[in-house]
Amino acid sequence: MPTTRLFVTILLLFPAAAQAETWVVDPAGGGDFTTITDALTAASSGDVVQVGPGAYVEDLNFLGKSVEVIGLGGSAATSLVGTGGADPVVRISNGEGAGTLLQGFDISGGNTATDTYFGGCVHVSGADPT
Q1: How far apart are CA 10 and CA 55, in angstroms?
Q2: Model pLDDT for residues 34-64, shown as the tens digit of each residue
Q3: Alpha-carbon distances of 42 from 9, 39, 48, 65, 127, rounded to whole Å
Q4: Would you call 1 exposed, middle or buried from its count of C-beta atoms within 10 A (0-12, 13-18, 19+)?
């Protein structure tokens, strides 16, 4: 009686490790985004957001992501001005880790009109940024 053999090859597919992205913010439209907020929304932990020189009127929330946000022109050329609301200009308060970095900005216009926040420019709570 003939013997029948069956050979089965099992191929396991593993997703490639996610590559960190570098996002460019340029208020004139020459980058990936025109606002830092839009870049932070799109970014994943480990990404870098490079911000071109200019004045950005917005409030930032790192949204629990460990992202580096770097003002390329330094604080002399890159400013972040709060929108005038009752919150600080930058909020890092959702468990962000040591990979979270904010560098190269002149920050102004923050407000702490409520008892919720302490620190009008940058509020850090429950996080460990660099």
Answers
A1: 56
A2: 999 999 999 999 999 999 999 999 999 999 9
A3: 39, 5, 11, 10, 20
A4: exposed
Question: What's the longest Cα–Cα distance across the chain?
Answer: 89
Task: Check pLDDT > 90 for residue 110.
Answer: no
* Alpha-carbon distance values, 62 to 2, 19, 22, 28, 123 (Å): 68, 19, 16, 23, 11
- pTM, entire model: 0.81
CA trace torsion 112, 118, 123, 127 (10° rounding): -150
Taking the CA atoms of the chain, what radius of gyration do you get in angstroms? Answer: 21
Q: Which helix (H) or strand (E) holds 39?
A: helix 36-42
Q: What are the phi and psi torsion angles at 51 (to 5°)?
A: -110, 120
